[in-house]
């Protein structure tokens, strides 16, 4: 995926999480590709969610109770997601 012309970096989380979701789907595992954000400062991130939890939320992106990641879009939609899982 090419980032916008004005952005000089990579959007690695989108590339890696989409590849992970596709690989899991090809192996017959159900996975959801999630795009989300958090506030203060505003950040965007992409990760994969399965019934076993989230993949791609580690290191700098790990969940922080003061600044939780909020899933804005999941493909395919996650049925009955519990609060804080996306």
How are the SSEs placed, and which strands pair?
Blueprint: H1 12-26, E1 32-38, E2 43-50, E3 53-55, E4 70-75
Explain the overall architecture:
By secondary structure, the protein is an alpha+beta fold. The protein is 17% helix and 28% strand. It is built from 1 helix and 4 strands, in the order αββββ. The protein has one helix at residues 12-26, and strands at residues 32-38, 43-50, 53-55, 70-75. It has a 4-stranded antiparallel β-sheet with strand order 3-2-1-4, with helices on one face. The chain is globular, with a radius of gyration of 13 Å. The mean pLDDT is 80.
Which tags fit this structure?
86 residues, 4 strands
Shape: globular
How many beta strands in the DSSP annotation?
4
Percent of residues in helices comes to 10-25%
Radius of gyration, whole Å: 13 Å
| SSE order | HEEEE
Are there runs of 5+ residues with pLDDT below 50, and where?
none
Secondary structure class reads: alpha+beta
Report the sheet with the most strands, covering strand number, pairing sense and barrel closure. 4 strands, antiparallel
Which sequence of strands runs across the widest sheet? 3-2-1-4
Compute the average pLDDT.
80
N-C termini distance: 23 Å
Strand content: 25-35%
Total helices: the number is 1
């Amino acid at each position: 995926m090419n980032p916008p012309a004005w952005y000089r970096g990579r959007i690695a989380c989108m590339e890696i999480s989409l590849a992970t979701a596709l690989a899991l789907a090809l192996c017959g595992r159900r996975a959801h590709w999630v795009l989300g954000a958090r506030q203060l400062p505003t950040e965007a991130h992409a990760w994969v969610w399965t019934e076993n939890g989230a993949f791609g939320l580690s290191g700098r992106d790990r969940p922080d109770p003061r600044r939780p990641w909020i899933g804005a879009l999941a493909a395919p939609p996650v049925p009955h997601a519990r609060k804080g899982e996306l």
